Amino acid sequence: MPTGSAFPPAPKASLKELLESAKNLPKRSSDIGTVNLGPNEIRRKANELRGDKSEDRHYTKAHYLLAGSGITLEEIESEIQSINVRQFAASPAPGANQTPLSQQSDVDNYISAKKDENILAAIEQSLATAAKDFDMFVNQNITMDWKQRKEALRESFSVILNRGSSGRPSKQIKTAEDPVSWGGVSGRSLLSSKNDFADVKPSSAQPSRVVNPTTSFAIRQRFETFAQAVYDLNESRQQRKPYPICTVFSDITKFDQNVKSRHVHDSWKILVDFVEESNSAGLKERKYEELYCSGDSLDFQAIAFRKLVVSKSRTYLEDQFMDYLNDFFVQTGSTSVPTNVEKVSVFLEHKLKRGGDWNVPNLSLINGVPIWALIFYLLRAGCLEDAIQVTEKYHDSFKKLEKSFPVYLKSYHKNDRQFGNEMQGRITNEFNQYFKHINREADPFRYAVYKIIGRCDLSKKSFPYISLSIEDWVWIHLSLVRENDIEDDPIHERYSLIDFQRSILSFGVERFNASSNHPMYLQVLLLTGQYEEAVHYLFSVNEMDSVHLAIALSYYGLLNVTGKGNELMSVEKTKKIFFARLIGLYVSSFKISDPRVAAEYLILISLNQSDEQVNLSLSVIRELVLDTREFVLLLGKIDKDGNRIPGIIEERKSLLKLDDEASFLHKISEQAALKAEEEGRYYDCILLYQLSEEYDMVISLVNKLLGELLNTTEISYAPLLEDQSVALATKLMKIYNRNSQISDKVSLKSRETCSKLLEIIKIREQYEAKAYSKCLKSIMDLGLVPNAGSDLETIRFLSQQFNTLDESISKNIPGLLIITMTITRHLLLDEMKSGLNNDKSEHLRQISRNCLVYAGILQFKMPREVYTTLVNLECV
């Protein structure tokens, strides 16, 4: 029996051949995904394999099997040792056969590793988010705390100086008053040119919104005329003299040709009559303030004012109608002197007749005279006595038809257009009996007369078959209005001025301005005492007229004003006009071109002497000063001898409730200076402090400017003397030193600081000119850095003195040290070139050494680059 294998022996295959064959295997299996392990996972897996201590198992049968196949284990072992397996370790064959168990193990390991990576990534993301949130928190808190810290920082850097060092009582740190804000949003300027009123917009039909008065000659001329009137008004107020403002404004509008301007002129005449400007003895600023601005509609003073409005407006309409009758009679060509009855009769002939017939039905005629129409229009003209004479003239006729009416009319005239309870009851009963159901058979004028004098059936206020003008309609309602004992009247008989005002507003502008040739809405508002509504309406028609109407009303105390809100007219308990913003909006169009005029207008904000309005006026004037920068014109100036020359605002300080010069300086100039300082406008700030006579603050700011100039320019920069701040400092020091009164108001430290800074500037000039010996002498004379004779104690004293120096000087000490070291080096090199090594050289070396010692003591108080530069310049 043969002992060999049943299979023929296979040819020997080397391991290299196997590897080459493996490279030809598929790189990827469609069933098995690639497992990519990270370095940490590979390291962990290798440790696990390294730690496997399973017992060795010898498979002898495999040895014989391989040997029978032509594979020698010794040869394979030697070949394995010769192979660099590193290149294959990182990329195992993806197509190698894996058992399900090994596949599951690899997937678990991958998932575990991925989980660890996700956890680490989440931790890193949380840390980044926390850091970002912390940065945001810090930024927000720094921003919130900045305003509170600002004054502390200002004090620390000596921007606001304590005057205790000057030998006078210490003064509290000055801070700018809160800026004016309106509409609930800070920073909204009262002088803004943008119309921010939410309740009204100027009409697009206006030729100009006074954005630029120079665009139209007519507008400019009108603007200048109003401006002159405002100037005269302030002059009279300052001299405590009355000023007929309504008459003046009325005259300005008298010659305007357009319909709307004539309408405004007629409105001015209503106010002229109401405030009685024809009687100079009755003129008085804020004349009606106590009556009109009480704030409570049920207050006794408010009721008294409404009665005054009703009486004066009714009388005005009656006088106006009488003037119309006079003009009408003149136009008829008659040369006789007529009575009032004759004037009305002629008027009726033309008004109520057409083609010789009366065009009003059911007229009651006595001897061809429409008796009730005659009485009605006599009442309309305010001719009560003439109406009584008519009833007496036709006594017999009235006795037959209306025997009680003459009695009613006399009682109406005698008792100031009112009846007692008994008489009122009688006339009411007769009215109800005759006119319960008005029809075409009744004389409409008889119905109107009874209704007016008896105030009958007030639930119906219409007058059928009578053609009424708007003026007639207003007069009738004013005749029906009653303010006395209104609570005692039955509800259906109550009719007050407030009720009439509501009716007018409910009808709206269109009803009263239906005729484009005869708009009446503004006049109706003024006749019924709705002054805020009048300003509000007129703003949409003509801003210029609206502003001056508001000024005139405020002058007499006929305007309720407010200092806040987004609307021109706010409606809370009472209607109020945002007077300050109205003036500011108007002034914004010419504040730059005509600052003098702008100031005169802004002063008028304080017409209402409340603290709110005065503060608004002061604040907006400060804003004008900063916007226009017309400091001399508005605030005045200090001449070379220290004498004060007042400006426009100081001349008007009494109108702003600034009783003395100190109040003016604090409220206007000083507050404007603080505001300018906050905005970084240092030159404006210096001038404003100069005008407010805060001379110590002037020098402090000049020192700050000089210090910044020296610190921000290169050491070799020469033309410092040409700089504006240097010239300003030099001039101010000369003026202050000549005037002992001013000099006494400046602290010694401020003066010394300014002098030293000017000396440093001269040193820089000498250094640039390479006048090294002269420059070094100037530095030594200044006494801010050690000299050759300074011992260690002196140097320590100078270093301690460094902490007490003004910041404007201390931050320029490093530059002074560099200049000193550079000069000593140059001078020493010159000495060495000359071959001399004398006392002068040693003197220079000693200065250099002392400067380095001084700089060393001031460690961390100067930039690192300075120390590097000083070491490089050290002389050997």
TrEMBL record:
Write down the species: Kuraishia capsulata CBS 1993
Report the subcellular localization: Nucleus envelope; Nucleus, Nuclear pore complex
- Where would you say this protein principally sits, based on its record? nucleus
Q: Does the keyword Membrane apply?
A: yes
User: Would you tell me the protein name for this molecule?
Assistant: Nuclear pore protein
- Please give the Gene Ontology molecular function terms for this protein: structural constituent of nuclear pore
Which InterPro entries does this entry report, sorted A to Z?
Nucleoporin_int_Nup93/Nic96
Write down the superkingdom of origin. Answer: Eukaryota
Annotated Gene Ontology cellular component terms: nuclear pore linkers; nuclear pore nuclear basket
Q: Does the keyword Phosphoprotein apply?
A: no
Alphabetically sorted, this entry's keywords are: Membrane, mRNA transport, Nuclear pore complex, Nucleus, Protein transport, Translocation, Transport
Its family remark reads: Belongs to the nucleoporin interacting component (NIC) family.
